[in-house]
């Protein structure tokens, strides 16, 4: 009996997790080929802003496993191989590489093509079809290297960097550019960290302003001021001009599924694939990672939350199930996320899970919400930093619906306590009275998350 | 109708939480009297080692609410009032104060007398009935002030401090004395942090040794070497002598229930009271805080875990229920706790929840256990510190049974994620696949607690 042919498209977290897990589960009876359009594999995209900030010695440090390591594990990893079509009758994938068009058969196929940074039309020179000079996203290792060059070209402690977008990458790139000494302006359609409600977003904005970042909210970038093919300013929808030597495209990502016949695969309106909880998409075809939507655990609705955590888990689930069907199930996403903004006098940890007020309303879930202010440690300790915890719960059954945290050192990871509560369908009362840890360097005697839960419970 | 008379014995966390919560719930129809043997109220005993270390400006900073604040809230707070007996027929409490013996009637009585540091016979001069000079516990604000004087009497960066006991207070006092520059020896009957299993305890011991602390395990202090009423050394059970200018008594605490007729109240063999989940102990009598045992949430067994977190919660529950019966229930304890050892080159956060291997065996619970090593942050970040997570789970149903964590900054509070899982009866699989937060400064892409859960799940 010949080996089962597993073909994986995409060699980042989801694809390589699937490949390795399948090999671990199946052993030598499996032949694994991975097609990767770029020359990079298994790298931490989340680490790129910190590389740009100067915290990480080099792009190599962001690579969790090298191509050599993958190949040593027995994986036929092919770089520069861009999948262009799937033939589901013939069970083949067509791809382009340096030698032209290739066709490869499979018994099991994993689609893990990830996502690409959104690049708006205004960022692209219609003449050349390329981005204007000085305008770039922050998604790939190549992007990271390009940003190091771009920033190195600016004067030492000067140069104007405009960040288009105020989400995770936007805030992290504002930190990186500010710490490098540049003038930074963040321009966002709504507000910074718009996955937080306006009240907690305002705390992040205030911290960014205190660090000297200019923040423009409620008006997106709509066009560039360009001279000689190079950006020199941006215009917002309100017509305001902001001078710019460099522009960060931090406008989100979009799934790399354009090569698929999406009409014939379960997928959402934004092009995200919609696999079953076991990772299967169609007969013999699996999908995982940033090219996929996922079910929200609280609402059951499909949602697009492309994060490395999900990609790793989904890849592992697919790699297990394609060998031993039905072993693992993806339990859905809560929208848990964390970041920080640390520059100048500001150090803020920012985290959220579940639904915010807007998302709850959109899902038809009535919520009560309350912001509780407190301290990350006992007030008499030098470790004590301010922290604000916003909790959302259902007035009818007291169930937690979401949480947002903004605060000093130790604030952010507290979101995991609430996420774990949410995962189990806990009420605010459960959270308020459970047995969490306390010592003066780490919390107040009533842990702030529990004070927040108790206060909200008393108001429901 | 005259006001209901609430009498509270003990003016620290449990008693004052009960008093204030009862007033908030009942309003002016309640007359609250609190008897306190000392002259202190509502202070953070947990903060005393940090005060001694020099992190806290003064003992006043440890007082959450002053006597004046309690009195301004309408509480008749009586200092120097030591309860000596309860007459359950007459519904009266007899107490001693500066004016002699007093008797006070009550409609509702709250026993919140707390606990006292264990002082072994060897620490006491049989002639005077007082502790030898240089030998003192660390429990009350007076103890804290005494320790500042004792340490100030030692030569600048010298003097030999022996800590008898290797638990939370022992480790914290070793940190305090070491940071002040003294020679420190910790002597413990079993091992340091014996609420951890030996494998994780060994990591704490190694960290303490790296900071220059001498650690003597497996042999308790059994007698002192005394000259002129002042300690100058200790002897262990093995007969070894360790020179000592000062000796810290860090041997645990015992409930202050000696004045009660324990034969006629629900109580354990160690003298801890055993209230119902609503806080009631007998008709019209309630109990809360360090004078009580509590039900372990996992085993249902009575256990003595005197911690400020429980005292605050139990006090609040009693204060609510004595006005509006049956409103709140104490959900039991998991044994969640956290501390740190930080001195010299060592910075270790130490936390645990649930049962350790010894406790599980004693409860007849079969467990599998696994230590997983990882990083508090992505490996390429400067925030990355080693962390070891030990998880225990039941092989039959995969349910979590306990966790222990030792690691660098950000390690300890991760215990709350496991404690929340335990609170909800989660399996290691639940924990492994739930949606926790990730960004490079805060965790690896697979959060270490989830790696630990996944690895253990795969072995069950």
Automatic annotation (TrEMBL), chains A, B:
Cofactor(s) needed for function: FAD
Annotated SUPFAM superfamilies: FAD/NAD(P)-binding domain, FAD/NAD-linked reductases, dimerisation (C-terminal) domain
Keywords, alphabetical: FAD, Flavoprotein, Oxidoreductase, Redox-active center
Domain Pyridine nucleotide-disulphide oxidoreductase dimerisation: 346-446
Coiled-coil stretches noted in the UniProt entry, renumbered to this chain: none
Domain FAD/NAD(P)-binding: 5-302
Similarity-based family: Belongs to the class-III pyridine nucleotide-disulfide oxidoreductase family.
Protein name according to UniProt: FAD-dependent oxidoreductase
Organism: Nonomuraea composti
């Amino acid at each position: 009996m010949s080996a089962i042919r597993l073909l994986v498209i995409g060699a980042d977290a989801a694809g390589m997790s699937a490949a390795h897990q399948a090999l671990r589960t199946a052993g030598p009876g499996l032949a694994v080929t991975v097609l990767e359009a770029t020359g990079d594999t298994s790298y931490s995209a989340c680490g790129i802003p910190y590389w740009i900030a100067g915290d990480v010695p080099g792009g190599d440090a962001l690579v969790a496993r090298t191509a050599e390591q993958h190949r040593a594990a027995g994986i036929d990893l092919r770089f520069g191989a861009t999948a262009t079509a799937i033939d589901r009758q013939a069970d083949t994938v067509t791809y382009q590489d340096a030698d032209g068009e290739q066709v490869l058969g499979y018994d099991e196929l994993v689609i893990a093509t990830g996502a690409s940074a959104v690049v708006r039309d205004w960022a692209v020179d219609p003449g050349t079809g390329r981005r204007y000079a000085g305008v770039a996203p922050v998604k790939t290792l190549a992007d990271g290297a390009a940003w190091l060059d771009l920033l190195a070209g600016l004067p030492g402690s000067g140069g104007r960097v405009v960040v288009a977008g105020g989400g995770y990458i936007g805030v992290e790139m504002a930190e990186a550019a500010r710490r490098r000494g540049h003038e930074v302006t963040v321009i966002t359609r709504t507000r910074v960290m718009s996955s937080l409600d306006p009240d907690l977003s305002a705390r992040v904005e205030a911290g960014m302003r205190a660090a000297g970042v200019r923040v423009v909210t409620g008006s997106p970038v709509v066009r560039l001021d360009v001279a000689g093919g190079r950006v020199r300013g941006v215009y917002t929808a309100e017509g305001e001009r902001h001078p710019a030597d460099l522009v960060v495209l931090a406008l989100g990502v979009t799934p790399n599924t354009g090569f698929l016949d999406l009409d014939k695969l379960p997928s959402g309106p934004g092009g995200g694939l919609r696999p079953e909880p076991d990772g299967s998409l169609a007969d013999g075809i699996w999908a995982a990672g940033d090219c996929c939507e996922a079910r929200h655990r609280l609402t059951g609705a499909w949602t697009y939350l492309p994060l490395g955590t999900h990609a790793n888990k989904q890849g592992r689930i697919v790699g297990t199930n394609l060998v031993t069907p039905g072993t693992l199930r993806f339990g859905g996403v809560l929208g848990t996320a964390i970041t920080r903004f640390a520059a100048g006098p500001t150090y803020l940890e920012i985290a959220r899970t579940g639904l915010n007020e807007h998302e709850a309303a959109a899902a038809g879930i009535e919520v009560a919400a309350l912001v509780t202010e407190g301290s990350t440690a006992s007030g008499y300790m030098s470790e004590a930093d301010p922290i604000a915890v916003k909790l959302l719960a259902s007035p009818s059954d007291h169930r937690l619906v979401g949480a947002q945290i903004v605060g000093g050192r130790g604030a952010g990871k507290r979101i995991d306590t609430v996420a774990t509560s949410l995962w189990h369908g806990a009420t605010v009362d459960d959270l308020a009275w459970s047995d969490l840890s306390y010592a003066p360097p780490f919390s107040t005697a009533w842990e702030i998350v529990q004070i927040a839960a108790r206060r909200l419970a008393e108001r429901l």
